[in-house]
Each structure stands twice: as C-alpha cells, then as structure tokens.
Amino acid sequence: MMITMRHHWLLLGACGWVLLILMFVSKFISFRAVDDYGERAWGQSGTVPGAKVVKPIPASSPEKPALKPSDQPSLVPTVADWQLVTDKRNELLSTVCQNSSLRNLTHVSISKFVLDRIFVCDKHKILFCQTPKVGNTQWKKVLIVLNGAFSTVEEIPENVVHDHEKNGLPRLSSLTPQEITLRLSTYFKFFIVRDPFERLISAFKDKFVKNPRFEPWYKHDIAPAIIRKYRKSHRDSNLAASGLHFEDFVRYLGDTEGRRRMDRQFGEHIIHWVTYAELCAPCKIHYNVVGHHETLEQDAPHILKAAGIDQLVSYPTIPPGITRYNRTKVEHYFSGISKRDIRRLYTRYQGDFHLFGYPSPDFLLN
C-alpha cells in the first residue's frame, strides 16, 4: 500500500514538473502570421535599420483603427450594408475635397502621371487606379483574367503581372483625349487605400530592405541620394552598402521642397510612396468605389459584384489577418524617429488621412 501511494505521489510530482517546464517554454515561443500574400509578417524580433534600441515589444494581436459600431462591416455584409459603407466613404471624400484648407493636399490635375496609373478593361468597362503597396498585384490579376489572357488568377506568373509590356493591361494615358473622357464618364472606376503610414512602411520594406523583384535602382541610386541628403552622418564611399534607414526615408518624405527636387530625379519610381491624391486624383475623378485594405475581405467580393464581374472572376484568396492594421508594427518603426520628423511626415500625408477616414496617428504625434 505504501509503495502504491509513493508511486502515486511521484507520478503527480513528475506531471507538475512537466507542466511548469511547458509554461516556461511557452513564454519564449511566438508565431508569425503570413503577411503581404506570402511574405512573413513583421514580428517582435524584427529590427528597423537606423532606429534606436528599444525594449522588446510584447506580442499582441494587430489592431484596427477604432470604428463607430455603425461603420463596422459584419463578417459577411449584405449588399445593402456594404453599399451603406461605400456611400459613407464617398460622402466623406466629397466633403474633404470641398475643404479649402486641405486643397493643396487633396487636389491634383488629371495629368499624364495620373492617367498612367489607371488601367483599362474595355471589355467590361472598368477603370482601376493603381495604388502601390495596397495589394494591387491581385487586382491586376483580376483584370488580366477579364481581358482573356488567362482563365484564372492562379495561372498568372508573377513576372507577367508586373511586366506592363506583356500583361495586356492598357493604361488610360495610351488613349486619345476623347476616348479618355468617354471612359472616365461612363466606366466603373475604383481603387484601394490603406492606412497611409502603414503603406509607407510596406514601401520601405519592399523596395529598400527585401526588394523581392530585384529592382537594383532603389538600393544603388535612390537610397544613396536620400542618405547623402538626410542622414546626419554618413560616408560617401559606402552609401549603398550602409542601406537606407527608415528614419532617412521619413526625413526625405517630410521635406517638401527637397523631396520635390529629388522626386524629379527619381522619376516614376516614386509611385510607391506618393499620396493617393497624387496617384488617382480622387477630387477630380468620380470613383464609384474606394475600397479599404483593412476591410478587403468584405470589399473585394462586393467590388466584383458592383462591377458586374463576380460571375467571371474571383479575387485571390486572402490569408487570414493579412489586411489588419498593425499598430504595434507602426509604433516600432517610428520608435526612434523625432516628433518633429513624424509631424512633418503627417503634414505631407494629412490629405490622405482625411480623404479616406483614417484617424490621425496621435500616438505618434503627441
């Protein structure tokens, strides 16, 4: 009997130790979600070039901007629910466009630069304005399928999507003035936006850190020019190798006059970080829908339906959580940057925040 009891207590003790060990180990295990349709998401172990060393950030779920209950779409919103959200977005856009104090940030002419951003699908009378770093690759695939080059979005090679000579997507700028006017007044028009600061982080990572499509001019031409002008201490002999820091990028974007001079030098490559207003001229062109990256799971199927193409093509599968706003990531990237530089950056993108209903990032500004 005593031996049995002893074995019983030994077994309980062993189980207790196992539980304690598992609890201890779990403290150091974190999982990363998939980001950017296949890339790894930013995790708490990520570092930002040029940022000051900060205490480790505890893992937390990505946060969305606070919405009023009436503005929060249901998991599967009805057509009427989604149309109400769309109407509110368009009403806000129209109101901000009429705000004279923001006119310099919201109004741009319908220039060739804007027309170059708008892809045309004549077969289904659709115009799509490209806003890089907001999942545009997937919408290009949708248009390529509609134009008949491929049967499904899954069949389209990535190199074809980004080769504007081969993807079969004409730009509005390639048409005559009369043809442009006709399409702007009669076609279904849409584009997608996301939180402006999170978009800038995505552009910085994609072009200056990862550069998955091997576009060497970002590292060898653009980055050194920005470093030379905006990094407080640098060595001219080693600019490309040192790599662009996010702080350098923020200073460049927030310097109104200096940036304009450099942008003329950089040419078309600036499309990845110029404002939505500059890309799509939403105060001059009446778009039927402005979708939001943060609610893309709800927006995408309804955009297809509103355009009359939901029976012809499907939007690519969206990995769970990929479109959520991640405040923790934003705080981390801006953690080593001065309030003055952040405020200058906000001044530059203030029009986008207001036009599309994104809350001011007071947690960074104050």
From TrEMBL:
Q: Organism classification, top ranks?
A: Eukaryota, Metazoa, Chordata, Craniata, Vertebrata
Q: Record keywords: Repeat included? A: no
Species name: Echeneis naucrates (Live sharksucker)
Q: What is this protein called?
A: Carbohydrate sulfotransferase
Keyword Transmembrane among UniProt keywords: yes
State the family it belongs to: Belongs to the sulfotransferase 2 family.
Keyword list, A-Z: Carbohydrate metabolism, Glycoprotein, Golgi apparatus, Membrane, Signal-anchor, Transferase, Transmembrane, Transmembrane helix
- Annotated gene: chst10
Specify the superkingdom: Eukaryota
Cellular component terms per the entry's GO annotation:
Golgi membrane
State the annotated membrane topology for this chain. Single-pass type II membrane protein
